Predict the structure.
Amino acid sequence: MNAPTHQNVRVALTAAQILDLGTTPVQIVPGSPGQLIVVYNMYLRLFAGTTPFNPSDTDVFGFYVGSLASANEASFGDDSGVSCVGFADQTTDQSLWFEAWLGNGNASYTANVIGSGLSLVRGNNNSFPTLWPSGGNWTEGNGTMLALVEYSYVTP
Amino acid sequence: MPLGLVRSGDFRNGTPIVLPHVFGTPATLPEPQENVQPQSNSSLSSNLVTWTPSPAHFGNTVDLSLQTVAPIVIVTPGGTGTVNINLTQLLGTPTPTLTYSGAPTGVTLAFAPNPNTGTSVCTVTVSSSVSTGKYTIAIIGTSGTEVDSTNLHLVVAAASSSSVITGSVLMTVTAAQLLTLNSHPLLVVPGVAGYVPIVESGFLIYNPGTEAYTIGGNDDILLLTGNVANPSEVLSNYTGFGANLMMNVIGSAQPVVNYWNPSYQFGTPTSPTIPGVPASNLVGYGITLIQYDSSDAFPTGTDWTGGNGTFTLFVEYTFVKG
């Protein structure tokens, strides 16, 4: 059969949203009932502000589908997320690519993933993504970000 | 002919069948049954034993079995494609000579080596005059009086002017296919002559049945891209699925899903030791689902036992000319 239709989304994140990502995920791609989201590219762009963010050394960004309520309820992108240090704490604009898959953490309950949207979250890589929230929210920074995701919906 | 083996043309004891039929003394020897070798007796005087055995080893055990891997090959007019003809020697060490029938005019098959001693490469050559369509060709192995055959499905597809072909597969992998996935890798996407296959994305859902599979502790499930018959020099998905974790630990009661990592590693699934793989092991080959023991390199491992769950498999692919 034909390949599914690829779509692209651009979501702007405010400084307030970035500061709270440790406890409040931001949905990037809405869910579609009865369908799984398949990703092809995940990218973050930082527009540096006058005050850089203050991540800890172990803070990571991660995309996920499903639920963060407990282990095996979400599928995460990349391996344990991508480090925030060297990106969010910079004073110049930055680009950050993620590995284009959602299989980190092995299998997840299908019922949690089907129909779920794709969200961006932040955690501590010592326990992320199996334990969340972890790492707390940031307290400094006024830059903004742009999340770009190429994806498709597939009905299993 | 082996001593005691009854073949078509032998005579058996019993009452001659002369019209009208006369009932007489029952035959003292049992009728031929599968896996039983009745005794022949050249002094017997009646009842020519005739039958048309199918397969041609009635009353005897099967000596050999052939399998086409992959069972499908896609070739453009004027092009060639290859599959493997795998031999399983069930009794003795038969080395069958391979022939074929049913090929349309303009299609020829060549086998190397021939006779088959284990695996023979079957090269399918399609002339430019062959019409596009689907054809089934019987590949026949003959060793003495032993004969077995296997089918090859040939798809003659019009040459694409595009350098990129995209598509996807959404399929159910049955319990029967899962139970033999180690010994019988499942071709998911057939190769396209002249094109390199690429996995773009995909996922695998395990749908539990009423009985769990008995799975080796190190068993993994992978997608291989390239020539499965030469697994030390193919590409595989960087991260396979731990079957135990996915299917028995968290997945014993409800369906679970895992995404394929579209990244590749080179060489064996567990031991990338070479910086590249021969293009000849990729060009023209497809994408295959395998099950193997991850503590060693494919094709190690064994088939699973028990179990009746299924997979829902989605693979999005691109073929690139080159």
Q: What stands out?
A: Residues 1-60 of chain B form one domain. Residues 1-6, 9-60, 268-272 of chain B have pLDDT under 50 and may be disordered. The first strand of chain B starts at residue 64 and ends at 69. Chain B has three domains: 1-60, 64-156, 164-321.
